[in-house]
Write a structure and sequence with these properties.
- By secondary structure, the chain is of the alpha+beta class.
- It has 8 helices and 10 strands.
- A hairpin with a 2-residue loop joins β4 and β5.
- α6 runs antiparallel to α7.
- The protein starts with a strand and ends with a helix.
- The chain binds calcium ion.
- The site of calcium ion has 6 residues, from α5.
């Protein structure tokens, strides 16, 4: 798993954040919002809290014999805790007032992947030459697409496309979308902020991934270059998770990792 984040061409700061923790099969990406550095604070809190809580949960290994539920439950809890932390910081630190973040996170386990999201950051899956969007944006515009009022292409052009209907930190509670999917060998999962998906069509993303033939670092470079060549209007972040199931966690390695971060 590897990732990249880039401020883009028109912005000086980068409000996106991502982390990968191969030991626990975790990838997490957040896109912050809020004035003057607050967006950076929000996305930073989001990825850090998700990472810490998942490492903690897997190091303890609570409920090991109910393994499937562990990933789902831990991921949901970690995102809910990130929501509370951002909400609290926004309420108590004047410079953070009104901040929020989207989040998208994936965890590999066995021959499955658990995918959670809030907001309009996305997960795509590339399988057998086909690129498919797995998450449904929590945005006004996608709601209109879903109801058949406008087309996907009209949505891409809309000036209102960045209005999200759900985000971390906005309210004390958050409703997290979470799903579990079967993984097959050679699946590629792509997590991204809207700085990628607003600028490049699915066809262009697919073309770049296929042209790189397994050179994932090269693919990340190409994706960012292409976005910036198209004007780079927003921060852009992409994480690639190449799956080789079954994925197993080494409890000892996770426990060592836990000691490192505490
Ligand atoms: Ca963005």
């Amino acid at each position: 798993m590897i990732g990249v984040t880039d401020p883009g061409v028109r912005r000086n700061n980068n409000e996106d954040a991502y982390l990968v923790v191969p030991e626990i099969g975790l990838a997490v990406l957040a896109d912050g919002m809020g004035g003057h550095l607050a967006g950076e604070v929000a996305s930073g809190i989001a990825v850090d809290i998700v990472r810490r809580n998942l490492i903690g949960a897997f190091a303890r290994g609570d409920d090991e014999n109910d393994c499937d539920a562990l990933e789902r439950r831990s991921l949901r809890q970690a995102i809910e805790l990130a929501n509370s932390a951002i909400h609290e910081a926004a309420a108590t630190r004047p410079e953070c007032a009104g901040m929020g973040a989207t989040v998208v996170a994936t965890i590999l386990f066995g021959d499955k992947i658990c995918i959670a999201h809030v907001g309009d950051s996305r997960v795509y899956r590339l399988r057998s030459g086909r690129l498919e969007q797995i998450t449904q944006d929590h945005s006004m515009i996608q709601e209109l697409v879903r109801r058949g009022f406008i087309s996907q292409e009209e949505a891409r052009q809309s000036v209102n496309r960045n209005v999200v209907t759900r985000a971390l930190g906005v309210e004390a509670q958050v409703n997290v979308d979470i799903g579990e999917h079967d993984v097959v060998a050679d699946d590629l999962y792509l997590l991204c902020s809207d700085g990628l998906s607003d600028v490049l069509t699915d066809e262009v993303i697919l073309e770049i991934l296929q042209a790189q033939q397994g050179d994932w670092e090269g693919a990340l470079r190409q994706l960012v270059m292409q976005v910036n060549a198209c004007g780079g209007p927003d921060n852009v972040s992409v994480v690639l998770v190449h799956a080789d199931p079954p994925f197993t966690r080494n409890r000892q390695a996770v426990q060592q990792l836990e000691q490192l971060i505490n």
